[in-house]
Amino acid sequence: MREVHLPIVVRSTEIDVNGHVNNAKYLEYLEWSREEWYEQAGLTYDAFLQMGIQTVTVNININYRKECTQGDCLDVKTTPEKVGRTSFVFYQEMTNQKGEVCAEAWVTSVTMDEKTRKAREVPATLRGLFPAE
């Protein structure tokens, strides 16, 4: 599985005093899209628990390119970019209905042992969904 697209319509409750989507809401949109990627990959929360792991976001590098406003129809694309021993990176891109890039982000997560709460090697099931280096 390469990429997942999640459509989002900007609601009035997501607008800040500047009349556009608050910067923190972009992060929420990105999270929703990553969760959709996991779901489509068959990696539900229960699947992770069966593997004895959880995932933890440890870094988000985001570039805000264009403001989003109420009623905008956004597409949030999530693409697996690279995988290391205990971590993996998604590239995410948010575009509006005109095809303009509103934000792009690189999100690094670590697989954590459910019991010890320490970093653990990325399981083969998840590793196989990322491009080989």
TrEMBL record:
Name the Gene Ontology molecular function terms of this record: fatty acyl-CoA hydrolase activity
Question: Which is a Pfam family this sequence falls into?
Answer: 4HBT_2
Protein keywords: Hydrolase
Q: Which CDD domains does this chain map to?
A: 4HBT
SUPFAM superfamilies referenced in this protein's UniProt entry, alphabetically: Thioesterase/thiol ester dehydrase-isomerase (SSF54637)
Q: Give the family this protein belongs to, as stated in its UniProt record.
A: Belongs to the 4-hydroxybenzoyl-CoA thioesterase family.
Mind telling me which NCBIfam families this protein's record contains? YbgC/FadM family acyl-CoA thioesterase (TIGR00051)
Name of the molecule in the record = Thioesterase
